[in-house]
Amino acid sequence: MADVDNLNGLVENVAKGDKPALKTLYNLMSGRLFSVLLRMVRQRDVAEDLLQDVFVTVWRKAHQFDVRRGNAEVWLFSITRRKAIDRLRISYRETVGTFEDVASVERETDIYVGIGNTENYISVRKCLKELRPDVHRALQLCYVFGLTHEELAEEMKVPVGTAKSWVRRGLAQLKESLSIDERT
């Protein structure tokens, strides 16, 4: 696993137009990112195309990376996940699917990449299971599948305000559960 500070520095250098930094970043992260893409889209050629799109996005948007908002590894996985989700949305809309259909992808995909160590992963999973099903699903659709609040409301057939409050409530409950977990 690449050192977080090293990744942060590489992305900052990419933002300055440093092509060797992009190549180094690619060499360090492409295997892991490709693995996530392949598990999500389940087609090697599509995953390869998406990986290229990820690094084009990194090149174009590296200036938007802010280490105060998160580390580079999480940022890279977020871009990767969004690229795959966008592709899945297109594919499922073409076949008249819904996000219920996409739920099976979540079960087989490590959606918690970037959380850190196994202990954090287990804590987050445990806390998510304690949430009400509608709140858990709202968080999943927003943060795993990248839905906006408006899309979430449409998918769950509730007003936008309700969707927003579920997300807010879920995040607050997760934060509280995780802080209690850390103290025990």
From TrEMBL:
Keywords: Sigma factor, Transcription, Transcription regulation. GO terms for molecular function: DNA binding; sigma factor activity. Residues 123-174 form the RNA polymerase sigma factor 70 region 4 type domain. GO terms for biological process: DNA-templated transcription initiation. Pfam families: Sigma70_r2 (PF04542), Sigma70_r4_2 (PF08281). Residues 26-89 form the RNA polymerase sigma-70 region domain. PANTHER family: RNA POLYMERASE ECF-TYPE SIGMA FACTO (PTHR43133), RNA POLYMERASE SIGMA FACTOR SIGZ (PTHR43133:SF62). Belongs to the sigma-70 factor family. ECF subfamily. This is RNA polymerase sigma factor, sigma-70 family protein.
